[in-house]
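Quick note —
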Amino acid sequence: MGGMEGLDRSILQIIRHFCATANLVTTSCLGTPSMTARDRARVVEFWIQVAKECLALKNFESLHAIVVALRSPAVRRLDSTWGHVSWKSKRTYKQLQKREKGLNRKQLLEVNGG
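Predicted structure written out below.
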């Protein structure tokens, strides 16, 4: 049963990393009260580019965490912020969402050696 403990620990580490990444993305997009919608839009665009790089690197866990954070109600409801996000970044984000949704469990396991 010693192997199961290691597996449990690994799973917990993955979950912690996912949550930490999603929280980092969400809190940075929300920013501080002094930030303008345009400032927050630049942060959103930054994370969209990071997600694009994660896809290129086949880092699907981080890609998923970033997309989940950008889809979270706290970020999604920032209408003024999203209004300042460039059309190119919005297009990239929509493509990333489709790509991320298209990754099934079997593909993720194959990529991760499972």
